[in-house]
Amino acid sequence: MATVYVTETGVQVHKEGQRLLVKRGVEVLQDIPLIKVDRLVLMGRGVSVTTPAIYALAQQNIDVLYMNSRGAYVSRLQGREHKHSRLRHAQALAIVDQAFAQKVASAIVDGKINNQRVLVQRHAEGAPWARQALEMMDRMRRDVDAAKTLDELRGREGNAAREYFGLLRRLLKPPADGQTWGFERREYYPPPDPINALLSFGYTLLLNDIIAACQIAGLDPDLGCFHAIDYNKPCMALDLEEEFRPLLVDSIVLFAVNRPALSLSDFEVGPLRETEAEEPGQPAPRRPILLKDEARKQFIALYETRLNEQIFYPPASEQTTYRRVLELQAYQMARLILGEIETYQPLLVR
Q1: pTM metric for this prediction
Q2: Inter-axis angle of helices 98-123 and 130-145, to 10 degrees?
Q3: What CATH number should be reported for the domain holding residue 118?
Q4: Beta-strand (E) ranges in the chain?
Q5: Among 147, 175, 309, 328, which residue has the least CB neighbours within 10 Å?
Q6: What is the span of the domain harbouring residue 32?
Q7: What tens digit of pLDDT does each residue of 14-36 get?
Q8: CA–CA dist 226, 104 (Å, integer)
């Protein structure tokens, strides 16, 4: 099963028989059996899907996800509604249990820092600063484990994240043209440099896949333990995303810029949103740095390759793909909420 990305302006998705055709006019760009599709992602205003295709996808319970040209989530079309009322009720009760939420959140953050540490260890091997950096990350992990409240845990995780992105900056090789990536710290919106643009785009791709994993497992993607609940915030999906960020996004970013698969010429300054128009006498709004179309396709290909990579999954003692592990971790969270297991075990790499 695969996620189909449609990114080219002027392209439309059609249904013919039991196949999806991605077409520009009469030209067929892709011909994919429906049985091999688990998600359709449309990026930008210039792509569309016909009504018969939408109906067929809904019948097969295949999501249609809309994203804007910057890679931000816009909307989602889903098939049949879930049948997991008992789990959703238990989830709503569980997240207001402070002891339960604290225990789950601590495990999530511990898994994230462990996987960040492994990433740094692998890429900083032989660097004179590596030993001190790894010892610092061990201390941060212990500090997080010692947090007594959710707010304290969130604060310590934030400190750990700032230190980690400082180390990530040191792992980046300079661009081939001898300039700089301009990455100083993690900044969310708008991304001010190519590295932040890659991180934000990658995290959005990952979050969408984890939202889908939550829905497959029957979880409500919006009701989480670690991230504070807020409007339009998929907190459970964000919780489950944490342990995978260094494994499935940060590692790809390092590969893409250090190999190098991408260069400064693969990025461009994007337009302001309609709500961000320049006003006389006010500082000019910062324009986002975005991937160009071909580079975006290349990054998506790297991400999909990583998702389909086989790894050993300890709870099942078997080899499986990262894509499947996303679902298995969501199922594990569902079992924990239903009281079938006692602890949440994040995926810890070594």
Answers
A1: 0.86
A2: 170
A3: 1.20.120.920
A4: 2-6, 11-16, 19-24, 27-33, 37-43, 47-49, 63-67, 73-77, 267-269, 289-291, 310-313, 318-321
A5: 309
A6: 2-77
A7: 999 888 899 888 888 888 888 88
A8: 8
